[in-house]
């Protein structure tokens, strides 16, 4: 494995020059070369030595930036790293053009094997939830705990609001959409994404909105942006059709790691009703319900997600052995109606 520090995260030299990736205070980026892929990894300096490692995996169309707020909340509890999956964020496309769930899971496994950081606390959102579920099922030696925020696991009845995203997997739809949306500004696109992914788009700060617009402008310059998005959507839909031992729900049954499940009551992409099925399927699970949250609870309610994650570390004895300073107020103390429960095994 080769690793190169990226102070301002320039694009790979073989690709057209585009705007640089935003790096928040306390973060750094580095490029990691692995067989067939190059991954960009975002990290924070841990508050002290000896903290257990954690790895965050983003969702469809997202990037490691989606985890910045939660990473800042947890830098006193775990040694935080977030990966840009191949073709997303600042990671170039994979050499073989494979964007299946299996390929994304293979990329995560290759990184963990090469970095020798495992076992890690593994966290995934949406597409990243499907990817990390597969990683935890096939390589339990790499995973201490699993935290899933609105994981994209198969649903029999897909929400109407999720249909346009699923349609990206249909050949020709992406080309049609890009033609129809050619005149849209980055601001319009970001507002559309936030309206879809946030329970309350008003929770995004002006700074957060500006950063998202800058990132959208940068991504639209990438020649592979739509291809990576389309092929990953297709890979997710294809994974939903698999049966037998490769089926995602069957793999969820095989996960041995203590699992924290987080679902938003206003999620327009993953049905809130799926939280109970997930709680029954993952054998050692805990459920955090956030009725006011949407699809990206770690961005809308990072403090609540962080508190539930700390509880997971405490309950399972998988922390660093030194208790972190914690807010003792209940998860629902901010008036969001949060509900926590231990789903058990």
UniProtKB/TrEMBL annotation:
The keyword Electron transport does not apply. Pfam families: Abhydrolase_1. GO terms for molecular function: hydrolase activity. Residues 323-345 are annotated as: Disordered. Keywords: Hydrolase. Residues 326-339 have a biased composition (Low complexity). InterPro entries: AB_hydrolase_1, AB_hydrolase_fold, AB_hydrolase_sf. It comes from the Bacteria. Residues 55-300 form the AB hydrolase-1 domain. This is Alpha/beta hydrolase. It comes from Streptomyces lanatus.
């Amino acid at each position: 494995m080769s690793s190169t520090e990226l102070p301002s995260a320039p694009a790979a030299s073989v690709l057209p020059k585009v705007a640089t990736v935003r790096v928040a205070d306390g973060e750094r980026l580095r490029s990691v070369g692995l067989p067939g892929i190059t991954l960009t990894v975002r990290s924070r300096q841990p508050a002290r030595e000896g903290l257990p490692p954690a790895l965050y995996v983003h969702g469809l169309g997202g990037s490691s930036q989606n985890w910045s707020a939660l990473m800042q909340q947890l830098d006193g509890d775990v040694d935080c790293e977030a990966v840009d999956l191949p073709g997303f964020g600042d990671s170039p496309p994979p050499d073989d053009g494979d964007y299946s769930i299996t390929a994304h899971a293979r990329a995560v496994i290759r990184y963990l094997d090469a970095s020798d950081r495992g076992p890690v606390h593994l966290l995934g959102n949406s597409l990243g939830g499907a990817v990390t579920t597969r990683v935890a099922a096939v390589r339990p030696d790499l995973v201490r705990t699993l935290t899933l925020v609105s994981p994209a696991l198969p649903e029999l009845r897909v929400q109407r609001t999720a249909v346009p995203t699923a349609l990206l997997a249909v050949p020709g739809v992406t080309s049609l959409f890009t033609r129809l949306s050619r005149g849209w500004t980055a601001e319009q696109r970001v507002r559309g994404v936030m309206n879809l992914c946030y329970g309350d788009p008003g929770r995004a700060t002006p700074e957060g909105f500006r950063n998202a617009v800058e990132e959208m402008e940068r991504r639209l310059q990438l020649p592979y942006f739509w291809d990576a998005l389309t092929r990953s959507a297709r890979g997710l839909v294809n994974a939903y059709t698999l049966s037998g031992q490769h089926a995602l729900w069957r793999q969820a049954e095989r996960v041995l790691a203590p699992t924290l499940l987080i679902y938003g009551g206003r999620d327009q992409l993953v049905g809130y009703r799926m939280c109970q099925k997930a709680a029954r399927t993952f054998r050692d699970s805990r459920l955090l319900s956030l009725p006011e949250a949407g699809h990206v609870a770690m961005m809308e309610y990072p403090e609540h997600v962080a508190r539930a994650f700390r509880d997971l570390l405490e309950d399972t004895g998988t922390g660093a052995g030194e208790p972190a300073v914690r807010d003792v107020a209940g998860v629902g103390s901010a008036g969001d109606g949060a509900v926590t429960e231990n789903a058990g095994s």
